[in-house]
Amino acid sequence: MKKIDITCIIDDDPIFVFGAKKIMQLGNFCNSFMVFHKGEEAINKLRPIILANAKVPDIILLDLNMPVMDGWQFLDEFIKIPSRKEILIYIVSSSIDPQDVERAKSYDHISNYLVKPISIEELQKILQKEH
C-alpha cells in the first residue's frame, strides 16, 4: 500500500484536526499535512498552488460547517480551478442530515462522505481504494 504524499485538512475544529493528524501519523497514512481552519483561507491558499501545479494535495478532508465560507461554498469555488492532478475530496462532517449526504453525491469531485469521528480503519480503506 502506497502512502499519500500530502493530505489537506480543512476544518475549524482544532480537536478534530489534532485527532485526524494523530490517527494519520499512527497509521502511516501520509508524508505531510496542509491545514486550514476556514474554507476561505483554504481556497485562497490552494488556488495559486494548484494553478502553478506545485505541491498539490492528494486528498482533501473537508468539513461542511465552518464560519465565513462553509464546505459547500469552498467546493463551489474549488471545482472552478483547473487542475492537472486529480485531488480526491472526502467530506468529513458531524452532519448526518440525509440532505447533506445526497448533496455530496451531486458533486463529481467527492469521493465519499464520512461522519466524524474518523477511524484508522476508514483511513486504511481510503488508502486501499486510492492505490
UniProtKB/TrEMBL annotation:
Keywords, comma-separated and alphabetical: Phosphoprotein
InterPro entries membership: CheY-like_superfamily, Sig_transdc_resp-reg_receiver, TCS_response_regulator
Gene3D superfamilies (alphabetical): 3.40.50.2300
Record carries keyword Cytoplasm: no
Residue list for modification 4-aspartylphosphate: D63
Domain named Response regulatory: residues: 6-131
Name listed for the protein in its UniProt record: Response regulator
One Pfam family it belongs to: Response_reg
